[in-house]
Design a protein that fits this description.
The protein is an alpha/beta fold. Helices cover about 35% and strands about 15% of the residues. The protein has an eight-stranded mixed beta sheet, with helices on both faces. Strands 1-2-3 form a three-stranded antiparallel beta sheet. A three-stranded antiparallel beta sheet has the order 12-13-14, with no helix packed on it.
């Protein structure tokens, strides 16, 4: 195999571009759900924007290829595989190259994306890939003393990412020698830059005091409150190039931090919210009400033809065991385990109210000429949502006119001091809603 122009084993950037084009071209949503197609379209649109001088980001094939090249040199640590080292599938290459390939034009060493939300069904190698991302951030991003944390609700869950990374280090002497890595029971240390990787969980007494370069949060849907999430998000203040990588399957808690992040991710993908720092991709089944005009029916979760939408690893030549597991789960679902099948195997949120309007279309019907005087003499309703900690205060004024036209005017506030805070997470949230 001939190395690419960037000196890497494969042209991963080209593989990702082909994947994005194929997803966008899949207009019948045969293999790619609507949200995956929107993520691919966002990437293609951004590549066009990057040709403009005023666009602040550029796509670097070298950085895109480097992270994939690094991960494909890592060994498998579970199961039986035809190849001793990891071979990334195109959907994984797309995520990795997009997140790490985009850079600031004024500082090529700084990534564009500092937040990642990745949602897909179980057994699609989320933890293995995230372990590789964690090791790359520990060793290869030029950060002095990088702290890489794998966070989850329990220590056992946090180990789902940490333990594969630890075994990868133990099985790869060349990796140990290249970066002076040492694997310990609850830590991986990097002598080359003074950094370390550790698992941390919600009940830990040592959540505070960290200065992380990268935090991976596993199974975000299982977080019952925002405690650990808020601590981790607020800890990035002193880092120039931080990363919060969130991986999850669907769940039941539609009032938790995970569903909040998912809702934001959907709005970003639909174009209703602009957030250049936030990468989002969601692999799930399609619902008829998510389309305009609506589709004739929802995807049937018991139809094997649609399983690939929530389980992109089914496109792999080695997918037979996964397909067999899903088929068994489908049989069990019909005998009383439907909730687990839909959330874990089809990545469908349960308990979530169907959206009654499309956020993008709502925004398109906005009238910037609407003024308070237009509400004069009407029977008005005023709603106020006060902020708690790091969100926004919102006020909504609504009224119906004599000709049955709905008028809605909103105001959104963040404290001015929020823009001056040391924490990058706080600044990003404040700027997003400014």
């Amino acid at each position: 195999m001939q190395p690419t122009e960037t000196g890497h084993a494969r042209d991963y950037a080209a593989i990702a571009l082909e994947y994005a084009r194929a997803a966008v071209a899949d207009k019948g949503q045969k293999d790619h759900c609507r949200l995956v197609r929107l993520a691919a379209k966002r990437q293609l649109d951004d590549l066009k924007k990057s040709r403009r001088k005023d666009y602040p980001f550029r796509f670097s094939a070298w950085y895109a290829n480097d992270v994939c090249d690094f991960i494909e040199k890592l060994p498998h640590v579970e199961g039986v595989w035809s190849c001793p080292t990891i071979v990334l599938e195109p959907f994984q290459v797309f995520v990795l190259t997009t997140v790490f390939g985009w850079r600031r034009k004024d500082d090529i060493d700084v990534r564009r994306f500092s937040v990642v939300y990745e949602e897909l069904a179980r057994k699609n190698a989320k933890s293995t890939k995230t372990a590789g991302v964690s090791l790359y951030c520990l060793c290869c991003e030029g950060e002095e003393g990088p702290q890489v944390l794998t966070a989850a609700t329990t220590y056992d869950q946090a180990k789902k990412v940490f333990h594969p990374a630890k075994r990868m280090v133990e099985k790869t002497p060349d990796l140990q020698d290249a970066f002076a890595l040492a694997a310990w029971a609850k830590s991986i240390t990097c002598g080359g830059n003074g950094g370390y990787m550790q698992p941390i969980h919600a009940k830990s007494k040592t959540q505070d005091g960290h200065n992380p370069h990268c935090v991976t949060m596993d199974e975000l849907h299982a977080h019952e409150d925002r405690g650990l999430y808020d601590v981790m998000r607020s800890a990035f203040g002193a880092r120039r190039n931080p990363m919060l990588w969130q991986i999850t399957t669907a769940g039941f808690n539609v009032h938790g931090v995970c569903y909040d992040q998912r809702s934001l991710a959907v709005k970003i993908l639909e174009g209703a919210v602009e957030a250049d720092h936030f990468f989002a991709i969601i692999y799930t089944l399609d619902r008829k009400e998510d389309y305009d005009p609506p589709r004739k029916r929802d995807d049937d979760p018991y139809d094997p033809a649609v399983w690939i939408k929530a389980n992109p690893l089914l496109a792999s030549p080695d997918s037979a065991p996964l397909r067999s597991e899903i088929a068994k789960a489908a049989i069990e679902a019909k005998n009383g385990h439907e909730g687990d099948f839909k959330t874990k195997r089809m990545n469908i949120w349960l308990g979530a109210a169907s959206a009654w309007l499309n956020a993008k279309r709502w925004g398109e019907r906005g009238d910037r000429t609407l003024r308070l005087r237009d509400f004069r003499g009407l029977d008005c309703t005023l709603g106020v949502d006060l902020s708690d900690k790091d969100d926004i205060t919102s006020i909504c004024l609504s009224a119906m006119t004599a000709d049955n036209c709905l008028l809605v005017k909103t105001w959104h506030f963040v404290p001015e001091e929020a823009l001056k805070r040391d924490s990058q997470a706080d600044r990003e949230n404040a700027t997003l809603y400014k």
